[in-house]
Amino acid sequence: MSAIAQLSLSLSDSLDGLVRLVRPSLVIVNGHRFGYGAGVVWAAEGLILTNAHVVRRRAPLVRLDDDGEFEARLVERDEEVDLALLEIDARGLPAMRIAQALPRIGEMVFTFGHPWGQRGYVSGGIVSAIPTARTRGRRGSFPVIRSDAPLAPGNSGGPLVNSAGELVGVNAMIVGGDQSISIPATLARDFVQAALAGRPAIHRQDSPMPEKVL
Amino acid sequence: MSKNVLVELSEAMAAAAEQAGKSTVMVNARRRMPASGILVAADSVLTAEHVVEREDGIRVTLADGSEAPARLAGRDPGSDLALLKLEHPAAPPADAAPTPARVGQLVLVLGRPSEAGIEASLGVVSALGGPVRTGRGAMLERYIRTDTISYPGFSGGPLVDATGKVLGVNTSGLARGLPLTIPVDLAWRVAEALAKHGHVKYGYLGVRSQPVEIPAGTQKALKREQAVGLLVVGVEDDSPAATGGLMVGDILVGIAGSTVSDHDGLFRHLGGEMVGKAARIEVLRGGQVKNLDVTVGER
Predict the structure, then answer these.
(1) What is the domain extent for residue B151?
(2) How many independent structural domains does chain B possess?
(3) C-alpha distance from B259 to closest chain A C-alpha (Å)
(4) Does the interface predicted TM-score (ipTM) exceed 0.90?
(5) Has residue B57 been placed in a domain?
(6) pLDDT band, very low/low/confident/very high, at B90 (cuts 50, 70, 90)
């Protein structure tokens, strides 16, 4: 086989590995009259991260990748950053690996979610820009990730991951029809830490990287 | 973790965006949002002609965030390209890709529509086309179409390959808002002409014509199968065509050794390189073939 054919096959294998790595951490969040969205397993101890606009007061339902369904408790909700932290009575969940820094412009990113009800849909693109969003909240402004990976209703709350399968953002909205906006995972980390302040520290256990596929 | 191909590709794309971003500038020359431009020389920025709405107070923002005043060196509405001159030399200019774009090739479009920095979108080369009449009175020999997203303000920015080398200049001003890319060799050629002359030369004959069928009998005189020619319906006074002896009623069938059967075909033979040169024009007059030597003028 030619080197180029070999290369595109290994690229394809890498993509397959990425999907296998991320999809177990993808959940469906049923926000009742606020519709369906996506979410990610943030920590193995039953912590689920999603968008604030997907969940309101009423306890949302969370369906895991293995189809287990749980009534979730709302831990914290912040409309300024459009994030919500939910807790379900489950342990040993496959948590996402979380990127330590903002991605670079041009880096490849992949979205996972349930656009138009299509469960577990994957799309890809690159980070197009990292503009500053201005808000009326206490933060005033914060960076957001704009990508050219297509989003649609049902992607809300789902993960934006980098080529290593690490969470770089939480998909939040579509602007101008073709600009996908995600909330940086670095911001989500601060949000979760603040939400859990005062609780005994949880030991975040990242799901192990499958050695073969990545 | 050992690196996989996908991670390497991702890093290559980010590096390409960073590399090409250094020579991608913001061009502030219109009232609405700024657009993009490419440093083609240390003191020259190539941008889209349609984004240069004013000639005074043009400002260019470089990759390092510094702002530089610029003046218009020339514009070519036909290809929607304009050249700006910076007062002081800036960052290193962009590199042209050594080989033309290929269908399926992975590409990035870049733009710098705001002070916030470089922006990028990924895709593949979808199609190569041309020649096409641009609707701006010029013939675009070749163009590139991609499935990238052209964000607002991307006109004038580069299409680059996976190493950050420039494949072309993007504009949405040539095809009624549809984004397309002018291949880098054509764009650089226009930039050179603009730097040298301030404008791009187009050949001029001074005839108005319309396509007509050539009767079978007349085709015999032509000694070739050519069903359509251009009927001359008007000759401008003192034009190259008038001086060369073209008359209303002639059917133009060839120029410079090539067959001509439509306006685009004639147009293609009236490029800037023909200006001042003699072109042998083949016409049918009274059923007979006649060759006329016409010195092509400049439009």
Answers:
(1) 106-193
(2) 3
(3) 43
(4) no
(5) yes
(6) confident
For residue A207, pLDDT beyond 60: no
Q: Are residues B189 and B207 in the same domain?
A: no
CATH no. for residue B252?
Answer: 2.30.42.10
Contacts of A15 in chain B (CB under 8 A): 6
CATH number at residue B113: 2.40.10.10
Residues B218 and B274 placed together within one structural domain of the fold? yes
Domain limit, last residue, from B193, B219, B247 = B193
* Separation between Cα atoms, residue A63 and residue A36, nearest integer Å: 11
Q: Which residues of B touch A18 (CB under 8 A)?
A: 6
Q: Is B151 touching A (CB cutoff 8 A)?
A: yes
Which one is predicted more confidently, B270 or A123?
A: A123
Q: What is the DSSP string of B237-282?
A: TTSHHHHHT--TT-EEEEETTEE--SHHHHHHT-BGGGTTSEEEEE
Interface residues of A toward B, Cβ cutoff 8 Å, are 7, 10-11, 13-15, 17-18, 103-108, 125-132, 146, 148, 162-164, 176, 178-179, 209, 214
d(CA B53, CA B36): 14
- Asked if residue B60 belongs to a domain, the reply is yes
Global confidence as pTM: 0.83
Out of B1, B17, B152, closest to residue A106 by CB: B17
CA–CA dist B44, B108 (Å, integer): 22
Kindly list the distances between the CA atom of residue A173 and the CA atoms of A37, A150, B192, in Å, as whole numbers in the listed order.
12, 10, 44
| Cβ–Cβ below 8 Å for B14 and A131 | no
